[in-house]
Each structure stands twice: as C-alpha cells, then as structure tokens.
Amino acid sequence: MIKNNIDDSSSASCEDLDDLMKSEFNGRIVRKDSTKQLKEGANVPVYVLEYLLGMYCSSAEDEQINEGMKNVKKILTENYIRPDEAEKAKSLIREKGTYKIIDKVSVKLNQKKDIYEASLSNLGVKDAVVPNNIVKNNEKLLSGGIWCIISLSYFYEEGQ
User: Fold this and answer.
1) 87 and 68 together in one domain
2) What is the pLDDT of residues 16-62, one digit of tens each?
3) CA 25 remoteness from chain centre
4) In terms of pTM, does the model score above 0.90?
C-alpha cells in the first residue's frame, strides 16, 4: 500500500524545486497550458512552439509570460508560412529582399550543379540554394528535413 505523505512542508519544497529548475534550466522550461493555447492557431509541431515559448515565456511572472505569449504569437503570425499563403510569402521575400520564415526544410546535394538545394515544405520551393557552411554546421538538414527559423534572400539573375 502506498501512502500519500504530502503536507505543507512538501508544498514549500516543491516551490523551492520550481525555483531551482528555473535558475538551472533558464529558457528550457515551458508551461504546457501555454503550448495548448498556441497550438490551436498554428499548424506547427509542438516542439517548435515549446522552443519559442522557452525563448520568450520562461518565467514565473505572469506579466512576463503574457508579454512573451504576445511575442510568440507575433512571430508565428509574421513568420510561419501556411501552404495556402505561400505565394504571398514568396512575394514578401522578393519585395523585401530578405525575410525570416518558419518552415520545414530538407536539403539535398544537386550533383549536376555541385550545390546544396533546399526544399521548403509549406513555401513550396524545391530549389533554394543553401551555402555549404550552413549544411556543414547543420547536418540534420540532410536527414529528411527539420523545422527551422530561417532567413531567405531573393536572388534573380536574368537568363537562369
């Protein structure tokens, strides 16, 4: 038989544990209820939301969490590419020259051109040139694709 021995001193030690975790794992603790609130609005994997929440909402203060939630919602609104808005996003990249997006990226080596090319799932781009050093520093890009926050630049050369 298991006996539950929770009392007021245990409650205090839980708060101490929470404080210790927040100090030791700053930026890596996420409230699951926050993830659920955001998941309803964007079709991104939970770990992407948890990453953003860890960056902006890793705090015990409700005011900081609320401000962080606003930042995360803004980032998702401005940078997450929905497949039905791909052409709008491509136009933004062209008009601004450079634009940051959140999308699933997979990279392949194009042997004929001797360059790495990325496929961006939601954006619908299949031949974005990727610098060698990016692939070298992020080999997981070659393993079927990962979700990324990336800056894309538009480059057009006549005759290509």
Assistant:
1) no
2) 777 777 777 766 676 777 777 777 666 788 888 888 888 888 776 77
3) 19
4) no
Domain that holds residue 106: 83-153
DSSP state of 137: H
Q: Which DSSP string do the residues of 71-131 spell out, in sequence order?
A: HHHHHHHHHB--GGGHHHHHHHHHHHSEEEEEEEEEEEEETTTTEEEEEETTTTEEEEEE-
For 80-98, the pLDDT digits (tens) are: 988 999 999 999 999 999 9
CA angle 43, 127, 100 (to 5 degrees): 50
List beta partners, residue 110.
115
Give the pair of three-digit tokens for residue 14: 């839980």
Q: In the listed set 59, 79, 99, which residue is the last one of a domain according to the structure?
A: 79
**Residue type for 99, please?**
Y
Neighbour tally for 38: CB within 10 Å: 20
